[in-house]
Structures are given as structure tokens and as C-alpha cells.
Design a protein that fits this description.
Keywords: Membrane, Transmembrane, Transmembrane helix. Helix 2 packs antiparallel against helix 3, helix 4 crosses helix 5 and helix 4 runs parallel beside helix 11. The protein contains eleven helices and nine strands. Helix content is 35%, strand content 14%.
């Protein structure tokens, strides 16, 4: 990360700039401190890694020794937090670093592939390749006008990116399939499945699924970014695990000092809004979803090491739709083969260092 800090990033002027942009709303649990402040420059970042992070890891290990149900000792937790952290944020940053390094080293060959993280280009290219992307309204612009405000106010005009060289993706709001709708509340948002696919550093490797998570949206939310995460066992049973959340990483102000949020919110066998038991439910179209994202990875970004896909299962003729891809992706607390993932990371860093 330090080596890459000042180098070009595929979606920013530098890796450091991308860190500052994406860590503004990530709060270290129980501190109210956004991580972006430690990314002002390479010196600040290095000081954080050498001095502040070990201190926080030690304080966290004391807390974990009290509240973590594994009941490990302080030194066992400290060793884990300092050298091999296994929570979502750590693996997210590893994934981000791999793709940042890969894009820097292979820019000439992969520029168009990394451009697919632009939501508009993804939709255009996905349509060209006949992938099941969400459709865009075939109109050059729309006007949204408030029904009561007068005098020319309350009027907004949006140009369609796909037709009128605008900045806005204009789509209808899709609804959950009947199966998903039975699991969440009637006013929950479109609740997607995050699937991570990857390709090993070997040129002859195939696209594989690493993890699969159902993001069960919360009541009266516009998107499923605020959701309960239910891991889907894609290897055998296809059943949902107990649900978890990472909202304590996004608690700002005094809310960040709520020391009960981390552990009391990690066992949602029942969805807290719909009161439906999700743990143990069998997901019916796992193989279809896996084939869909593996095919999309192969067609759109065959050289990119790892990608997160947001897959919607809608009531539009019971269709699967790809909403977007996320190259700097996180696992959303999904289960994955730790040994396989460690080898994947090692081989990519070793290959890119050559």
C-alpha cells in the first residue's frame, strides 16, 4: 500500500487519493475517527501503520477477549488483529490493493477492462455482449417536477448518459422477486446478492466464485447498503447462514461509542424487520447466479484478478439482472476458503512483483 500510495490508480490520480475518497465514511468502531484522516499523505499513512494501528489492535484485543464468544486470550487476539485480521475491512483493503497494483502494472492491456467499474460503460458494454444487465430507459432526458412548487422551482431535468451524453442512468425501479419479497418487508429496497469471482495469477486459470452473500434490505431504505448479510453456501447445501452486519463501521458521532453494536448485531437468524427466519432457508437458483457472474467476468474483464457483482433477482419475468460490478470489492462478511484466498493473494503479489 505504501509503495502504491503516490502511483496512478485506475479510478483516481493516485492510490492515496482513492483511499481518501473511499474511507471518508468508514469509522473505526468505538472511536468516531474516519480512516481517511490517516491517508492525507504517505507519511501519515506510514505512521498510522507503525504506531497507531498496533495500539488500536492491542486495545481491540482486550475488548475481544471479553466479548468474543471464542474466548481467546488477549495475546491470541492481538496476534490475530495485528498480523492476520479476518474481518471484512481487512480483506476489502487487500482486494483493493491487489487490483490497484494489477491495474498499474498491466495498464495498457487492461485499461478498458477497469473502465467497466464506470456504471454507464458497464451497462453499454454489457448490453453489447448480451449480458443480463438492467435495462435503461430509451429516452434522451427526463423532467421531474414537484406537483405543488411554482415559479419555475421544483423542476429538475436529467440527461440520459446512454443517449444524450448525460451523467445520469435513467432506469425504472425494479422490485424483488416473489421469493425474496417473502423474506423482507414490503417496503424494503431491491435486495441483491453479492457474488465475488476471481481468476488466479496463472494465465490458464478459470473464473471461480469465492463467496456469495444475500443482502437483505432494511425497512424503508432506498438501497440495500444498509442490510443484514446472509452467507449462501454455494458449494453444497445452498442454504443461508445466520445474518451479520457491518453497520458499526459506519456509525458517526456519539453512535460510534456504542460498544454493544459489534457483538449484539452478529446473529440475525431472524430478519429484524420482517421477523422471518432466514437462517437455513435454501436459495433456489444458486447455480444460475454463479454461471451468470462467471460468464460476465470472462466477457467483460477476463484479466482482472477479483470482482464483486451485484445480482438482482426481480419480478420482471423472474429475471436475474446484473446491476453493476465492483472491482475494489469487499466480501460483506461472506464465508470463504481462507487458505485458498491466502494463496490467491500471495500468487498475485508475487506475479506482479516480477
Amino acid at each position: 500500500m505504501i509503495r502504491l500510495f503516490s502511483l496512478r490508480h485506475y479510478r483516481a490520480k493516485s492510490y492515496g487519493e482513492d483511499l481518501r475518497a473511499n474511507l471518508r465514511n468508514v469509522i473505526v468502531p468505538f472511536t468516531a475517527v474516519p480512516l481517511s484522516i490517516f491517508c492525507l499523505n504517505k507519511f501519515f499513512c506510514l505512521c498510522f501503520l507503525i504506531f497507531i494501528y498496533p495500539l488500536w489492535a492491542f486495545i481491540g484485543s482486550i475488548y475481544l477477549s471479553i466479548y468474543d464468544p471464542r474466548k481467546n486470550t488477549v495475546d491470541e487476539h492481538f496476534h490475530e488483529q495485528l498480523l492476520k485480521p479476518n474481518y471484512w475491512f481487512a480483506t476489502w483493503r487487500i482486494n483493493c490493493t491487489i487490483v490497484a497494483y494489477h491495474s498499474y502494472q498491466k495498464w495498457e492491456q487492461t485499461k478498458k477492462q477497469y473502465d467497466m467499474e464506470d456504471k454507464g460503460r458497464f451497462l453499454i458494454e454489457g448490453k453489447r455482449l448480451n449480458l443480463p444487465i438492467t435495462p435503461v430507459l430509451d429516452i434522451p432526458r427526463i423532467m421531474i417536477k414537484h406537483k405543488s412548487i411554482e415559479g419555475g422551482m421544483g423542476i429538475n431535468v436529467y440527461n440520459n448518459f446512454a443517449i444524450n451524453d448525460g451523467d445520469w442512468i435513467i432506469q425504472k425501479v425494479f422490485e424483488n422477486s416473489d421469493f425474496i419479497q417473502r423474506l423482507v418487508t414490503s417496503d424494503a429496497p431491491l435486495s441483491t446478492v453479492r457474488i465475488i469471482t476471481s481468476r488466479d495469477a496463472s494465465k490458464s486459470s478459470t473464473i471461480k466464485v469465492k463467496t456469495m452473500v444475500f443482502r437483505a434490505g432494511r425497512i424503508r431504505q432506498q438501497t440495500d447498503h444498509n442490510a443484514i448479510f446472509y452467507n449462501i453456501d454455494f458449494n453444497s447445501s445452498h442454504r443461508l447462514s445466520s445474518g451479520t452486519t457491518n453497520r458499526h463501521w459506519y456509525q458517526t458521532g456519539l453512535k460510534s461509542f456504542d460498544t454493544t453494536s459489534m457483538w449484539q448485531g452478529q446473529n440475525y437468524s431472524v430478519h429484524p424487520d420482517s421477523h422471518v427466519q432466514l437462517e437455513g432457508i435454501k436459495w433456489p437458483n444458486v447455480k444460475e447466479m454463479m454461471e451468470c457472474v462467471c460468464q460476465a467476468h470472462e466477457k467483460l474483464c477476463p484479466d482482472v484478478p477479483i470482482i464483486g457483482w451485484d445480482v438482482a433477482w426481480t419480478n420482471e419475468d423472474n429475471r436475474l439482472m446484473l446491476l453493476e460490478l465492483n472491482i475494489s470489492c469487499n466480501f460483506f462478511n461472506g464465508h470463504f476458503d481462507t487458505k485458498e484466498y491466502t494463496n490467491f493473494c500471495y500468487e498475485w503479489f508475487r506475479t506482479l512483483d516480477q
